[in-house]
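Sequence in, structure out.
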Amino acid sequence: MLSISVDWTWTWPVVVVLVIDVTIRILAIIVIPRNRRPTAAMAWLLAIYFIPVLGVLLFLLIGNPRLPRKRRQMQQQINEVISDLSEGLEFGTLRPNAPEWFTSLVRLNRKLGAMPLAGDNDAQLISDYQTSLDAMAEAIRRAERYVHVEFYILQADAATDNFFRALEEVAARGIPVRVMFDHWANRSKPYYRETQRRLNAMGAQWRLMLPIQPLKGKFQRPDLRNHRKLLVVDGRVAFTGSQNVTDSSYNLPKNIRRGLHWVDLMARIEGPVVGSIDAVFLSDWYSETGEALEDEADLFSGTAGPGDLDCQIVPSGPGFEFQNNLKLFMALLFAATERIIIVSPYFVPDEGLLLGIQTACQRGIHVELFVSEEGDQAMVYHAQRSYYEALLRAGVKIWMFQKPFILHSKSITIDEEVAVIGSSNMDMRSFGLNLEISMLVRGEEFVAQMRAVEDQYRRSSRELTLDEWMQQPLRSTVLDNLARLTSALQ
């Protein structure tokens, strides 16, 4: 009789591993797709199926794209307070004859957590990097009640010395100076400690945004960022846009070696909408400190500015239920009747946004996209490139801002009357992981300013053609496609 001997000391570990492996795969199918975009769910499933251990660890670390529950509750609380305070209020005199789609878009934004539409505003664009820093310093020096500073990156360096000296001067006069900057984005940057020491020395009240400090009980998904850039002085003057408070090289040795400099766009704003920008600061301050400042800042009694623009502030990020900035951009794409011009240094659209742009081209809309020829973030750079062929075949005119400059501005203009400027890129990170601020503007005067800036960018760019793109080497195509897959891991 044939006798079979089984070495159970070797078999049991294999069985256990197989059971765990099958269990993980089954649980992944159940857990991951829930309330997640199909592309993101598929990317996570592929990662877990092909690299199970690493895939599971990554999912546990960065698989939740939302802020911790406590922070979401705080965001909801202040959203409700702002909504109640502004319910039924009208700010300034709105421009007449607004298109129905614009009125509908404003209602959509409001429902998602945006501030009210405000009239009688003025917004002046500043496209020169150092001029913008100095203009903010000048506004700070005129402060009489308070200064609110919130930037993704904040560094006390030679380029920003005038900005920090202005803060020191008003703080010396006893005026409250409140400052916030993103923890993870600054912690490994040059001048991080020097910046903190300078803020402490002047007596500023400052906080890190989204700190990763588990020993202090502060932890969330580590790649969530507060990417907003704003300055508010007395509720009277505000600045917002794409620029951080740092040298145009970001003081990084690798950028200095490559000769890279950032090109940005900021708006100086006066009028009732300044209160809405301040409301975004106050909501973030409350989230980080638990301190409500509504008694100090009267958000909804702003006086008319010297202009006639209708403006609405749209905050977005993982503290909101929906991707507010993505919905704003999508609505604009389908509302355009003549042309769409997009400036986005990091352009990694989801399927809906890509379809919206392709559909606009098919409707006969003239579409242009400005991106950088040089990339500063390899994964995003290659993921962005993976969309160029589809865009070019659809009819999009792609402008490559020539190196060694990084075009960092973020804007979209629709026809000749409506534009958006802010901190939000058109990529999946800005839609799902970053806290952003966008300003919707209606007014031919503002769009004319945007057109002048776009012309300036066009003169510093070269057009990418489909023929040129199809000559890309195979290795570049492979890198682009791999980066495109990983960009969906949200």
